[in-house]
Design a protein that fits this description.
By secondary structure, this protein is mainly beta. It has a single domain, classed as Calycin beta-barrel core domain (Lipocalin). It is built from 1 helix and 10 strands, in the order αββββββββββ. A 10-stranded antiparallel β-barrel has the order 1-2-3-4-5-6-7-8-9-10. The longest helix has 11 residues. The radius of gyration is 19 Å and the shape is globular. The chain starts with a helix and ends with a strand.
Length: about 160
């Protein structure tokens, strides 16, 4: 076997590399403290913490969330990937508040973020500020409001310590 044939075989056996578009999610990596309020509330009634970390290989970003949502404890795991055909980041959420995996997709453009779930009929629109904080709001589609699909605003920053 010649040296050029060996190089070709080695290249063919090399594992694939993550799509460079996944780097758009790097700013999420870390632990974040969040506060928010349901629409119509006079007080902050949404509080929690989320942590984002890359899975080995760098193809998927994992989110673990713990949230007190107006007295209801939400625990969840989300895996986010990349779909080069759509330019979006599909995800699946596994949560104690819903009995089956929920599909979502992310659209990330610069400092703007949109997250959508067609299953629940809701969209989050948010943005990053110059100081590294984020804010935004979840809104159910008209006619899709109700238990488990409540409009709220949320904001957060990197956890200290």
């Amino acid at each position: 076997m010649t040296e050029s044939n060996t190089a070709t075989l080695t290249e063919q056996q090399a594992p694939p590399k993550p799509d460079p578009a996944l780097r758009k999610l790097d700013r999420y990596v870390g632990t974040w403290d969040m506060t928010g309020r349901t629409i119509g509330s006079d007080t902050d009634n949404v509080k929690g913490r989320t942590t984002f970390a890359w899975l080995p290989g760098g193809f998927f970003l994992q989110q673990r969330i713990s949230l007190d949502f107006a007295g209801y404890q939400v625990e969840g795991l989300e895996l986010i990937g990349y779909d080069s055909a759509t330019g979006r980041f599909p995800s699946t959420v596994y949560s104690n508040s819903f009995g089956e995996p929920l599909p979502y997709w992310y659209d990330v453009e610069g400092d703007k973020l949109k997250i959508r779930t067609d299953t629940l009929g809701a969209t989050f629109e948010g943005h990053w500020s110059d100081d590294g904080k984020f804010s935004g709001g979840w809104r159910p589609d008209p006619g899709r409001e109700g238990a488990g699909n409540i409009a709220y605003d949320i904001w957060g920053e990197r956890a200290q310590g």
